[in-house]
Amino acid sequence: MENSKPEMSKDILENCPHCGHKLSPWQQVLLSVDRVLTCKNCWYRIILDVPVKPEPDSPDKNKKTKG
Ligand SMILES: [Zn+2]
Predict the structure, then answer these.
(1) pTM of the entire structure?
(2) Containing structural domain, residue 19
């Protein structure tokens, strides 16, 4: 078995997807936090597409005790 491919979830962009301008480390931090960043080069609004996961309907989710 030869599967030496590190599974890295590349979530953070290093370059602007619009103009390819290199983002500074600080901009990458802002992007990871706010999920949105405006490129200072082309003023393109970079928005990270957040995978929207619907919460699984647990059978016992309404389990609360009345005090
Ligand atoms: Zn740009």
Answers:
(1) 0.57
(2) 10-51
63 part of a folded domain: no
How does pLDDT run across 9-66, given as a tens digit for each residue?
A: 456 689 999 999 999 999 999 998 999 999 999 999 999 877 777 888 777 766 677 7
Find the 50 Cα to ligand 1 centroid distance in Å. Answer: 20
Q: Write down the H helix ranges in the chain.
A: 25-34
- The per-residue b/e assignment along 24-45, b for 16 or more CB within 10 angstroms, e otherwise, is eeebbeebeeeeebebeeeeee
Cα(6) to centroid(ligand 1), Å:
29
Grouping H, G, I as helix, E, B as strand and the rest as coil, residue 46 is strand
Classify residue 60: in a domain, yes or no.
no
In a domain, 46, yes or no: yes
